[in-house]
Amino acid sequence: MLVFKRLIALMVMSVALAGLSPAAMAAYGVPEPWQLGFQDAASPIMAHIVSFHDFLLYLISAITLFVLGLLLVIVIRFNARSNPVPSRTTHNTLLEVIWTVVPVLILVLIAIPSFRLLFTQLTVPPADVTVKATGKQWFWSYSYPDSGGFEFDSLLLADKDRKPDQPRLLAVDNAMVVPVNKVVRVLATGADVIHSFTVPSFGIKIDAIPGRINETWFKAEREGIYYGQCSELCGKDHAFMPIEVRVVNEREYAAWLADAKKKYASDDRARPAVVAAAGETAGR
User: Fold this and answer.
1) pLDDT tens profile 170-184
2) Do 97 and 48 fall within a single domain?
3) N or C: which end of the chain has fewer CB within 10 A?
4) Cα 220 from Cα 230, distance rounded (Å)
């Protein structure tokens, strides 16, 4: 009886949460407590992923209900009491053709949008901005090879340095900055072990492998701050390796770019100290 009551309560809570608007369940670029579903899409790729996910959800729900209906019919109509003399039929050509052809058609129906989405993800259009993301234990380094070649490290902010509006374990000291409505190509590699560059709102997730460069792309359609994390187990401080991307307009991006070229031009001498600070921050 207790289990039944808990199931009822779970169903009521699910219905209540399902009635919430997407804005109430997920803010831009950051996960929310009790969030259901994906973060709001901020790129065409993520919009396609959400659409494909919803399509599959409806399809699999219909298949599940259909199979459940068949099971109920069998239980009710063909039990020993309702059907004491069972049929000895062993073959039905039409039925066998249907249950072979229909699943094939369903798979084709799934394959068409799936292949279209994969093609879009893997075909990198001409880039307006190129950013190289290098995963290190346990922080990210970003360089802009087409914009002066400067490089900087992005470290997790300690709680004492974090502002009230910055999310814990996601905010960093130096965010990756890109312009809005521009194609951004991301080159991902690793300096020590395998990492994974992941930003859910952009629909990107690419492994950063030492000695190899993988690429992906996104086009942010809204200004704002978007967060991600390393999504590959990479050591003891894997959980303290966030990604922060600031999407700004072209004027702000040009101003940031000019300032970054000066700020990070001679930063190589300070890099060992920055790396040491990263270890201390992650350790806390």
Assistant:
1) 999 999 999 999 999
2) yes
3) N
4) 20
